[in-house]
Design goal:
Four Helix Bundle (Hemerythrin (Met), subunit A); 2 domains; 9 strands; about 40% helix; EC 1.3.1.91; FMN binding; Aldolase_TIM
Length: about 325
């Protein structure tokens, strides 16, 4: 059975970064990229302000909700809430290394409890009809990645998981900060390739340290999809290459300037609802690369966009400081 091409490229879920405004922006850069929410705990989804936490713009599809949790009943309930909100996929976080996550018995520490993770996947599969997926590491701490990843993968696949996203690093829960866990543990892409070879019928997406679309392409000879994290967020201009380079389709807009201008109706609607301009434009900081005026663009947004009364004119003025040309993509 052919692998669903909608998983060929995705932007990773990132706490404090991939909020609804960021995702609307990223959608202006690629029609085909699969987008993910920030991780939400099952408790927040079940008991919190759902519209504030889960609400999204219709343009964001295909869009996945990432959940954090380990109680199978709560995972099923939260997954159903996500499906009812219109999310296209429910993803379980088995990779986040923060202390807060570990204390709550979710995230990367669950790599040590594959049976518990499988219970959660099975419960979510019974509750929803959209794909249920897992994002994990290759192991934690002293685990042997050959055994740890294989054990988790086989358990969740047997429970019905539709796809695995594998961050090709261990998480070192003892001794490293969450930030250090994004860089210090060595990358092992070959381990993810071996997982795909061992489970050829299971869609496998690779994540971790991939710096751009040109670097992503070779991975697709080994796995079914590539997920970009910080490179996509900090250098969003790279996303303009996704559709032409990975899907053989034109980008939604020919330049970053055109994409930012296309954000105007959304921004105006958000401002009318009381959203601060900076809440949206903070995601634009890395929009331009190697373009004359990029620094002036960033400075203007930083100085003027944070003002309480900042309006759409601030963005227009910032854009006017940049030379309008098609961005070189890679």
């Amino acid at each position: 059975m052919p692998i669903d091409q909608s998983f060929r490229f995705s932007v990773a879920p990132m706490m404090d970064w991939t909020d609804r405004h960021c995702r609307v922006f990223h959608r202006r850069l690629s029609r085909r990229a699969r987008l993910y929410s920030e991780m939400l705990t099952t408790g927040a989804v079940i008991h919190g302000d759902r519209q504030r936490l889960l609400g999204f713009d219709a343009s964001e599809h295909p869009l996945a909700l990432q959940l954090g949790g380990s109680d199978s009943a709560d995972l099923a309930t939260a997954a159903k809430i996500g499906e009812d909100f219109g999310y296209d996929e429910i993803n379980l976080n088995v990779g986040c290394p923060s202390d807060r996550v570990k204390d709550g018995r979710f995230g990367a520490c669950l790599m040590a409890e594959p049976a518990l993770v499988a219970e959660g996947i099975a419960a979510m599969k019974r509750a929803v009809s959209v794909p249920v997926t897992v994002k994990c590491r290759i192991g934690i701490d002293d685990q042997d990645p050959e055994l740890a990843l294989d054990s988790l993968a086989r358990a969740v696949v047997a429970a019905g998981a539709d796809l695995l996203v594998v961050h090709a690093r261990k998480a070192w829960l003892n001794g490293l900060s969450p930030k250090e866990n994004r860089d210090v543990p060595p990358l092992d892409y070959d381990r993810v390739y071996r997982l795909k070879a061992a489970l050829p019928a299971v869609p496998i997406v690779i994540n971790g340290g991939i710096a751009g679309i040109a670097e992503a392409k070779p991975h697709l000879g080994h796995v079914d999809g590539v997920m970009l994290g910080r490179a996509a967020y900090q250098e969003p201009w790279r996303l303009l290459a996704v559709d032409p380079e990975l899907f053989g389709e034109p980008a939604p807009y020919p330049s970053m300037t055109a994409a930012l201008q296309a954000m105007t109706p959304y921004i105006e609607a958000q401002l009318a609802q009381g959203t601060r301009l900076h809440s949206i434009t903070r995601h634009f900081v890395g929009a331009y690369h190697g373009v004359p005026g990029a620094r002036a663009f960033r400075r203007h947004l930083a100085e003027q966009g944070v003002k309480p009364d900042a309006g759409i004119d601030v963005l227009r003025e910032a854009i006017a400081r940049v030379e309008d040309r098609v961005v070189e993509v890679a």
